[in-house]
Amino acid sequence: MNDASRAANVLVIDDHRFQRSVLTRMLKAIGIASVLEAEDGAGALAIVRAQRDSLMLIITDVDMPEMDGLEFLRRLAEEAPRTPVAIHSALDRALLTSNELPAAAHGVALLGGHANPATEAALVAAGGRALERTSSPRQLVAEADERQLEAALKQHEFEPWFQPKVDLRSGRVTGAEVLVRWCRLHADPLPPDRFLTLIREKGMMRSLTLAVATRCAQYLGQVGPRGKDFTLSLNVCPTLLDDPEFGASLAHALTGGGATPEEVVLEITESAASRNQGAALENLARLRMRGFELSIDDFGTGHSSLAKLVRTPFSELKIDREFVAKLTTEASARTLVESMVAIARRLGLRTVAEGIETEAQREILIALNCDMGQGYLFAKPMAAADWLQWMHDSLGGHVASR
Fold it and tell me: pLDDT > 90: what percent of the chain?
């Protein structure tokens, strides 16, 4: 853990004093200096109200007397929905999952669950994910109006950041996923959850996507020699799939920056592929004919169907981090990922796993024949200059796990 984690609070909730003390000692051993404790949901809520601005992570049991974990998580969603939560419990995996589902439905920033007793690796992973969520400025940019957003676009304040993708077996760098940040002068970069809702409400998602695409193309030209299969992955907002001219505009933005559609993978969420299926399927086919590759993102978290995979011209299937995080602890997660990879291979699709944080996860994915991956094991998302330097330092396009 870094200095930021040392300055933040972690709240441990468990009705067993011994288990609380074990978790507290483990957290302090990995660098968390301030650990708060509560023995039930009511006491925890009082701490949340007093400390919400300094809470980096809440680790809670669910099987507790009086106010149990389920009620606490429902109340937490009302009090502090952005505070990351990890569930720990001695309940069996199926029952633990059934507790995670309503918490997520209430809007809790759930990082997942782990069995009791916790391991140091699980706590480090949860702390890393929590730190990622809380290290950015907490305030929303709700005060921004359309004129400010337009000015930010003109001044190139919306910058692409890059998270490398690698071949899991060889370590060869195969590309990067593009993640946008609002980089205002004299301010920390804002992640997309702080401004994308406003962009959508103002009807500016098309302009933002095209501007980011142009910048990506320009940076791609600075990478230097790269394999012919090196690609950048761009996320596409569902509403853009309703626009039959979007593909032509996107291709023009890329060529204007010195790239081609063949060098870009468009990541489409399952929900996006499901909405207004006639128009979506037509435009997905049109994008594919223009040379773009298509990836179905977050596969398995939405309304999946084999029929959708067969009739849509995808070239890649992306395995959601939710399943990757549970590979080493849950047999069901491994079975699901194994099935996804097998289906993808039968359909001639590449597979990409996101959110890889440990070497153990990587080894399981290799054993399951997953092709590529991305995650903190290899590199965090980084600004363009850092990414270009990272590429230069990666031994001709190969990278060891970090």
Answer: 36
Instruction: Tell whether pTM > 0.85.
Output: no
Instruction: Transcribe 247-288 into DSSP letters.
Output: HHHHHHHHHHHT--GGGEEEEEEHHHHHTTHHHHHHHHHHHH
CB 401 within 8 A of CB 359: yes
For residue 350, the cross-strand partners are 316
Q: Give tens-digit pLDDT for 371-395.
A: 999 999 999 999 999 999 999 887 5
Cite the active site residues. Answer: 354
Residue 137, classed as helix, strand or coil, is coil
228 Cβ neighbours under 8 A, 6+ residues apart: none
Average pLDDT value for the chain? 81
Beta bridge partners of 317: 296, 351
Neighbours of 99 (CB within 10 A): 19
Residues 6+ apart with CB under 8 A from 358: 121, 125, 328, 377
> What is the CB-side half-sphere exposure of residue 325 using CA atoms within 13 A?
19
